[in-house]
Design goal:
The structure is a single chain. With about 240 residues, the chain is mainly beta. The longest helix is centred in the first third of the chain and has 11 residues. InterPro entries: 5peptide_repeat, Pentapeptide-BTB/POZ_domain. This is Pentapeptide repeat-containing protein.
Length: about 240
């Protein structure tokens, strides 16, 4: 896995408008102030990376390692930080509205002054972080529909209980299989939902059930490789 430079990332922004760098080694880089809206930095190494005042709206930092990273003043509204390692990260004065922090490690992370409406930290995350907002019950919200295209699928899919997941596939599905670690527990993912007359036959939808993790496998036949997804459902 090669190292990257700020100049290389600037070129990607100029040429493609969006950075797609899953698994990249960006450790220690100065990326402060960059526009990384919708970027895919899942599984990336962001250890000690300077992301102060960066625009990371809707970005995926799923399962990234960002120990000691500096995010102060960054806009992370709607970002996916699920399972990210944010130990000792500086998240002061960040915008984290509607961000997904499911399973993120926040030991010693500084959240002083962070705006976190619509985000949720569990009691343990709050205890380990610095300056986390006071504990409160999440605002009631209606289930949402998350639409994902097969070409864009990478990494785990995060949902909240009651959400609807619609997958827009490249080929019509022949069969689906859902597995979860505890087969006797409540279903984590329910479906596929019964298709309707106006639903294209390449589309398939499911409903998020109880919190937990499930594995979804969709077969297409005709010698095509199956689609395999990890599904993580939170409350």
């Amino acid at each position: 896995m090669g190292r990257h430079t700020r100049e290389e990332i600037l070129r990607k922004i100029v040429t493609s408008g969006q950075v797609q760098m899953p698994h990249a080694d960006l450790s220690g880089l100065n990326l402060s102030g960059l526009t990384l809206v919708g970027a895919d930095l899942s599984y990336a190494n962001l250890t000690g990376t300077d992301l102060r005042d960066a625009q990371l709206v809707g970005a995926s930092l799923w399962s990234s390692t960002a120990r000691g990273a500096r995010f102060r003043g960054a806009n992370l509204n709607g970002a996916n930080l699920g399972l990210a390692v944010l130990v000792g990260a500086d998240l002061r004065d960040t915008q984290l509205r509607d961000a997904d922090l499911t399973g993120a490690q926040l030991d010693g992370a500084d959240l002083t002054g962070a705006e976190m409406r619509g985000s949720w930290l569990d009691a343990m995350q709050r205890a380990l972080a610095i300056g986390a907002p006071p504990m409160r019950f999440p605002e009631a919200s209606h289930p949402r529909t998350r639409v994902l295209h097969q070409a864009d699928l990478e990494g785990a899919v995060t949902l909240r209980s009651g959400d609807r997941l619609e997958l827009r596939l490249d080929h019509p599905p022949r069969r689906t299989r859902i597995r979860q670690a505890d087969a006797k527990a409540q279903a984590v993912l329910i479906g596929p939902d019964r298709s309707t007359a106006d639903q294209p036959r390449h589309n398939v939808s499911f409903t998020a059930g109880a919190p937990g993790r499930a594995n979804l496998r969709i077969g297409f036949g005709q010698g095509l490789l199956p689609l395999v997804l990890d599904i993580l459902v939170s409350t």
